[in-house]
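Chain A, query sequence.
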Amino acid sequence: MSVTPESLKNSWAAICLRIPHALPGTVLEQALPIAGDIGISAVVRVNDVMPGIVIRVPSRWPASLWQVLRLNGVRFEQPIADHHDHLLPVMMADEDASDVFAVFTADLASALSVEGTIEARMRLLMEKLGLWKRFFQKNTGPLSEEEVRGLIGELEILARMLAAYGADAALETWKGPADELHDFRHDAFRIEVKTWVNESAPRIFISDPSQIVIDSAWPVFIAVVQLARDNAAGFTLPERITTIMGGMTAPQRSVLEVLLADVGYLPVHAELYSKRYSVTETVFHRIGNGFPMIDPSTIPGGVTNLKYALELGALSPFISASPIGA
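Chain A, predicted structure.
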């Protein structure tokens, strides 16, 4: 029996019926149907009725490896000693995140259901927790459609970097997941990726005027990736990721999974991304004199979060060869 949003909510509801008879300051627990010496229980804290889960592990596992964190919608709290076990609590601080919290719980349960030693299963569990923690740093749910298209555009440029420089070097250049100024930072150039769909107006949006400036040390390029909805021959986001990972080693795939978690993509969400796209065209533009932009130095003090649109037709004089592999 797998964990679902409905089954987890039912477990919390059943626990809440016991609260009037519980001692203050306690946590009430109901085990979820997971076999083995590592378990997961639904819990509700009596004092504030906050729901969550605890991972029950044998006390020989070093609880010092557990990190206490407060992230978007969830709290990783202090381990609790319980007879011969440690209880590792993760509480749901945002009730609107209940569905994604259930997916999170089911994903952890899948790690504990595989065959192997407790050490091997705990390693897999901690790997999954590491990805989820990165996800929860910025997100409480799956990517929006606009975010999906933006990620596909960055993956298109990443694929070109992989072909030109190899996986290790290419992954090092991808800075979009870290929210740096430019999506790709190479020793010889910078690339900011913009994506648009051919069913919309031919324009791109600049979310930070500092992204497009003339830099004599590192030329800055805008890569405009045009997508088309293509149910016949297109690819989904998960399929594109699988293709890119195809030529990588296991450690390189792990690095890419971490970067994708930073963006907000987790493999467990793959079935949510079913729309198909094809890349119609990718055009590079080099920032230079006369490029239509707002000079950051001219923005009056007190103006924040400035965002503006650029018509693609106005960028045609600045079309350039790709700097990748040049």
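The first strand starts at residue 27 and ends at 31. Residues 145-320 form one domain.
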